Amino acid sequence: MDSFITGLLALADPSLVVLLIAATLGGVIIGALPGLNATTGAALLLPFTITMEPVAAIAVLTAIYCSATFAGAITAILINTPGTSASATTCLDGFPLAQKGEAGRALGLAVVASTIGGVCSVIVLMLAAPLLARAAYSFAPPEYFALTLFGLSMLATIGGGSPVKNILAGCLGILVSTVGIDLMTGVERFTFDMSVLTDGIGFVPVMIGVFGISEMLVQISNSQESLERIKLKAIKLPSKADYIKVWKTILRSTGIGTFIGILPAEGATVASMIGYNEAKRWSKTPEEFGKGAIEGIAGSEAANNSATGGAMVPTLALGIPGSPTAAVILAGLMVHGLRPGPTMFTEQSDFAFSIFWSMMFVNLLFLGVGLYGAKIFARVTLVPVQILWPCVFIFSIVGAYALDQSMMDVWVALGSGVLGYFMRRYGFSVVPLAIGLILGEILEQRFGQSMVMLKEQWWLLPTRPLTLFFLVLTFLALFGKPIWNRIKQLRT
Amino acid sequence: MDSDLKQSTRGATLETWLVPLVILIFCGFTYWLTTEFTRMPPILKRGIQPSDFPQLLIALMLGLTALIVWKDPIRVSERIHNPTLMAFGLIGVFVLLVQLDFFFALTVSCLGLTLLWKKRNWYTFLIVGFLVPIGVFFLFDQVFEVRFPRGFLTNLWYG
């Protein structure tokens, strides 16, 4: 309870409030710019947070996460181009509604649904994260190893791509994490006798590369089609009739989004897709979907914003990122010397609750920003791409360099950018690479510790009930769908 | 048109096999590297040898690559566009120019990137070629106290 209040009191610091307002506005701009998303924005800004206090740094990153996720709806509704992938389903009904001259109503609804989804998910985060951490407090290395393995197995379904390719990308990330001195034995691995590699390859330059530079390379090849832009007169708050029509959808999508967010590695995009589909399935007028149904907008937006709070639950309580952007935030925590996991709620619970309250503040703040500033932020889409992407490049390079003032980080960022481009080209998602890099070290440590504990008898791992539980979950995450499909095939 | 299509199909087939081959070579080379790691005596090895975990991963990667070839081959719908190839070239130019001056390399690369888009205006060059690099330089130098590596241009400021 003390931490609950101390965390709230952190918001009494005017400098933190100013920083959060600036980060929220920055996040809205990032989210409104087609091509840039919360993950890229957080990765690009990560080096700038190094000099900040840990609370301020992580609060800024979470503010960008929440606000950029919401802001994707602005461009989705006004120019039929989702600012972030999580808003792709908002286009389906948001743009048709805007074409009917009701852009203000569509945006107003998106803002309210996003705020409700975001606030509810932060409440769940406040309640669930400490409980989950308490449950995980008794975990021994074998349980942690199995849990991390489960987190990594969830990468198979990330981004809707090929599960095999996703796991391969995750393995590559874990392999990269083994570069440097092995903490268990002190032996140098893959360092090629270069002193700069003894500490390993930093995850910040890799993230800047795979999320920032590779995105730029992808965007360059995209043709510049002229966009139909809907004029926005004024944002309207939803009417009473609208609320009556969508309140169930908002609540349902909030629950779906929070649950999907809590699952390791699943994020706002998956949440918004399921939220939208469920809104359509439960609707009394499903035929209106795709033609400007307000339930479609509410279902998608409430789900993608509630996934942000949900994703922070495993990130903070277990150290397993709940989404790609949460992986960047996890990297930020590690850069500041904080180790997310159960101990965070015993040793640094004030810090954890400061972050929760900051997220709550940001979610309420973008209600105002969305209602009164969307008209201005919609103009962000007018920024020419030939200015935007060179700026992303310069900030990527300088950001990577600024971290340790090392040119090695610049080469790593550039190399990761090129690798990321080719991975995307050949159907590999870059997210598993980044998450694998972060979790790799933990996975190997826990595996080594488990081997010591079990006297190198790895086959004893499943004899521990919780380890067995997580191993079964891992098996189901990897093979559940193919087995289910096979059973269905046999039945028919 | 037909020849373009044939060329693209041929390129796609090549890439279908090239990617697993590159992964295979990478795994082979990495595995060889792991055999060079120092082996710890049993009393100091603390559970596993330093090479065990990477070797496990490499074996898994090889298995997954085989699975990709068998079940989920690489499919590429289109060739790499010229602007992207030029962007790779610009990255190469950046790497070379950094030897002269980091700031100069950034400016030239940014200007080059601007040229890769169809629409070009004088104000874009002004913003991207001068205002942004200079702004970023002073932001980092004055606010974040990050000093750029020395070069012929940055020396003018650092003295």
Would you write up a description of this structure?
The complex is a heterodimer of chains A (492) and B (159). Chain A has 492 residues and is mostly helical. Chain A contains 18 helices and two strands. Chain A has helices spanning 2-9, 14-32, 38-45, 54-78, 88-136, 141-153, 163-177, 203-221, 240-262, 268-282, 294-318, 324-335, 344-347, 349-377, 385-404, 407-425, 431-453, 465-491, and strands spanning 180-181, 188-189. The model of chain A has no long low-confidence stretch (mean pLDDT 85). By secondary structure, chain B is mostly helical. Chain B contains six helices and no strands. The model of chain B has no long low-confidence stretch (mean pLDDT 85). Chains A and B meet through helix 7, strand 2, helix 8, helix 15 and helix 16 of A and helix 1, helix 2, helix 3, helix 4 and helix 5 of B.
Which short descriptors sum up this protein?
heterodimer; A: 492 residues; mainly alpha; two-stranded antiparallel sheet; 72% helix; globular; B: 159 residues; 6 helices; flat
Shape of chain B: flat
Radius of gyration of chain B equals: 24 Å
Distance between the termini of chain A: 56 Å
- Poorly predicted spans of chain B: none
Multimerization state: heterodimer
Largest interface, C-beta closer than 8 angstroms, per-chain residues: A-B, 57 and 67 residues
* Most strands sheet of chain A: 2 strands, antiparallel
**Largest sheet composition of chain B:** none
Q: Strand arrangement, largest sheet of chain A?
A: 1-2
Radius of gyration of chain A: 22 Å
| Pattern of helices and strands of chain B | HHHHHH
Helix content of chain A: over 70%
